[in-house]
Amino acid sequence: MIIENFKPFFGKHCEATAIGNLLQHGGLTLSEPMLFGIGEGLSFIYWDSKQMGFPFLGGRCREDVLTENIAKKLHLKLEVKETSSKARAWEFVRSNIDKGIPVGLKLDMYYLEYFEQKIHFAAHYVTMYGYDENIGYLADVKGVRATSSLSRIAQARDAKGPMSSPNRAFTMGAAVEPPDMKRIIACAIHQNAAQYLNPPIQNISFKGIKKTAKLITKWFERPGMTSQLIAQTGYLMEEAGTGGALFRNMYRDFLKECDERYPELGLREAYLKFTRIAPMWTQVSRLICSAGESANEQPLREASGLLMTIASLEEEAMALLFENTSGFMERA
């Protein structure tokens, strides 16, 4: 069973791409930056735990929250299924596909055959739009159509570890263009800025970036942290969609799109700040990779200085957005 007329959505980030696939099939196509912005996606986290072999540097809100925020903002019916039973998990997916409804899956990319880079990451999202006796048909980032055995998909969905969910799958109801996009956008920007400027703990948002700047120079002293793991951290940030410049580019493009549609929101200055911020994240990722590849801590010291600058610029940009959208929301 393969859903007819399914056309993959082209996106660079896995969760936003999965959402784009579901909405597009339901009749609403929004740009990936618009989805990310409406979903209040911009953030940062420095996460380190005993379960992890290396620190995780994430550039967005917590996994699954983007999906929930978008559904709430656009008034969509979101149906989420989590279960420890592989049989019930598969039945939810199969029954929806049989009805012509594609399904978003959260899983560990390590187990999917088409990924050559074997890294455990349990917060990867794909869209399943078909199956046969042994094979699942998936849509991944950049419009990629891929296949994987149903057994490996089941294994990937049931994987345990950091950021995993028990066989999480979701669908979104049919969508129509919301009547008041300006208010939706202003509200999303305002709430994202408020969250960013008031992080609940020190390893999130601009405070987390500053904390990273302090800790990154000590990575070679961290127990279990090898040169290979440091290089892998830099790779994941920039190339695997966990952080780096990806989300700053996306938020920059979101602000540009909104400024062109609604210049009265006053987003231009913050947009220009993100045009400066985004390439700095690419440079941070490259320096981290360089440190790992050369087993030299000097690039980490350079990355630390850049991160302190980034933290200040992002705090300034989000403060601007908070102030400007506050004025609009008071008048609306």
Keywords:
332 residues, alpha+beta, Cathepsin B, Chain A, Four Helix Bundle (Hemerythrin (Met), subunit A), 2 domains, 6-stranded antiparallel β-sheet, two-stranded antiparallel sheet, 8 strands, 51% helix
**Terminus-to-terminus distance:** 48 Å
Q: Would you tell me which CATH topology of the largest domain applies?
A: Four Helix Bundle (Hemerythrin (Met), subunit A)
Q: Quickly give the structural class.
A: alpha+beta
Top CATH class of the largest domain: Mainly Alpha
| Counted beta strands | 8
> Strand fraction band?
5-15%
| Main beta-sheet strand count, sense and barrel state | 6 strands, antiparallel
What's the average pLDDT? 92
**CATH architecture call of the largest domain:** Up-down Bundle
Run of helices and strands: HHEEHEHEEEEHEHHHHHH
Number of helices: 11
What is the fold's blueprint, element by element?
Elements: H1 14-26, H2 32-38, E1 42-47, E2 56-60, H3 65-73, E3 78-81, H4 86-98, E4 103-107, E5 124-131, E6 135-139, E7 145-149, H5 150-157, E8 169-172, H6 181-197, H7 205-215, H8 227-239, H9 246-261, H10 268-294, H11 298-331
Antiparallel strand pairs: 1-2, 3-8, 4-5, 4-8, 5-6, 6-7
Helix pairs in contact: 2-9, 6-11, 7-11, 8-10, 9-10, 10-11
Question: Can you tell me about this structure?
Answer:
The protein is an alpha+beta fold and 332 residues long. It has 2 domains: 14-30 and 78-172, Cathepsin B, Chain A; 181-331, Four Helix Bundle (Hemerythrin (Met), subunit A), CATH 1.20.120. It contains 11 helices and 8 strands. It has helices at 14-26, 32-38, 65-73, 86-98, 150-157, 181-197, 205-215, 227-239, 246-261, 268-294, 298-331, and strands spanning 42-47, 56-60, 78-81, 103-107, 124-131, 135-139, 145-149, 169-172. The strands form 2 sheets. It has a 6-stranded antiparallel β-sheet, sandwiched between helices. It has a two-stranded antiparallel ribbon with strand order 1-2. A hairpin with an 8-residue loop joins β1 (42-47) and β2. α10 runs antiparallel to α11 (298-331). The termini are far apart. The mean pLDDT is 92.
